[in-house]
């Protein structure tokens, strides 16, 4: 008895949604995307997309731009202040190459993890002033002087349904004794390994196997 492999194969295709790697964002005030003359800081994404925000490298003269990156409300974004922010990551160590890796998911099992819903906007800003002493500023800073802010517009899912598979990976970093804020930054040592690639490879292998089974079924 032959199993209906081909219908099964066609049914599985919608499950494996295509994901995008958004171009890296260099989190430094000299980045042209923060120029007021353009709207490059407004980025459209879909559930399942991912992006890396790269902290700056130390300049030859030892100068470094220090900043905390927060997820905020639209009002905080517009007026460059912090009311109820969530810490996303920190660019506070000039001796390492650090980046914040974000995967846009509509569901995460991680306590305190970031979740993103289609049709909504999410905002990142930095109110630090670029100096080590001014990294804890709660108002203005680089957000005002250099327009360091990003707006993510989460579009509706390509298939018209929400896919809960993907989410922002979070780590915990205690900023003070009273509050622990979820962050999503990792230190790279030159061997950048993306966990999502393993999942993508597994999906590719499964689809290949199903194609082989379908071919044998049709012969």
UniProtKB/TrEMBL annotation:
<keyword id="KW-0472">Membrane</keyword>
<comment type="similarity">
    <text>Belongs to the ephrin family.</text>
</comment>
<dbReference type="Pfam" id="PF00812">
    <property type="entry name" value="Ephrin"/>
</dbReference>
<keyword id="KW-1015">Disulfide bond</keyword>
<keyword id="KW-0325">Glycoprotein</keyword>
<dbReference type="InterPro" id="IPR031328">
    <property type="entry name" value="Ephrin"/>
</dbReference>
<dbReference type="GO" id="GO:0005886">
    <property type="term" value="C:plasma membrane"/>
</dbReference>
<dbReference type="GO" id="GO:0048013">
    <property type="term" value="P:ephrin receptor signaling pathway"/>
</dbReference>
<dbReference type="InterPro" id="IPR008972">
    <property type="entry name" value="Cupredoxin"/>
</dbReference>
<dbReference type="GO" id="GO:0046875">
    <property type="term" value="F:ephrin receptor binding"/>
</dbReference>
<feature type="domain" description="Ephrin RBD">
    <location>
        <begin position="20"/>
        <end position="154"/>
    </location>
</feature>
<feature type="signal peptide">
    <location>
        <begin position="1"/>
        <end position="19"/>
    </location>
</feature>
<protein>
    <recommendedName>
        <fullName>Ephrin RBD domain-containing protein</fullName>
    </recommendedName>
</protein>
<dbReference type="GO" id="GO:0007411">
    <property type="term" value="P:axon guidance"/>
</dbReference>
<dbReference type="InterPro" id="IPR001799">
    <property type="entry name" value="Ephrin_RBD"/>
</dbReference>
<keyword id="KW-0732">Signal</keyword>
């Amino acid at each position: 008895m032959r199993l209906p492999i081909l219908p099964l194969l066609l049914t599985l295709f919608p499950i494996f949604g295509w994901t995008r790697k958004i171009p890296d964002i260099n989190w430094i005030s000299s980045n042209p995307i923060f120029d007021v003359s353009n709207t490059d800081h407004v980025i459209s994404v879909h559930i399942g997309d991912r992006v890396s925000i790269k902290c700056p490298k130390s300049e030859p003269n030892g100068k470094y731009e220090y900043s905390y990156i927060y997820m905020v409300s639209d009002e905080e974004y517009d007026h460059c202040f912090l009311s109820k922010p969530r810490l996303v990551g920190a660019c506070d160590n000039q001796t390492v190459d650090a980046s914040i890796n974000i995967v846009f998911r509509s569901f995460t099992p991680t306590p305190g993890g970031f979740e993103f819903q289609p049709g909504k906007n999410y905002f990142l800003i930095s109110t630090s002033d670029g100096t080590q002493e001014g990294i804890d500023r709660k108002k203005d800073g680089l957000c005002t002087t250099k327009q360091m802010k990003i707006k993510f517009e989460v579009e509706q899912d390509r298939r018209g349904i929400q896919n809960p598979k993907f989410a922002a990976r979070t780590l915990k970093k205690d900023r003070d004794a009273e509050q622990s804020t979820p962050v999503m930054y990792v230190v790279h040592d030159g061997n950048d390994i993306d966990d999502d690639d393993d999942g993508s490879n597994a999906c590719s292998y499964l689809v290949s196997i199903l194609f082989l089974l379908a071919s044998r079924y049709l012969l």
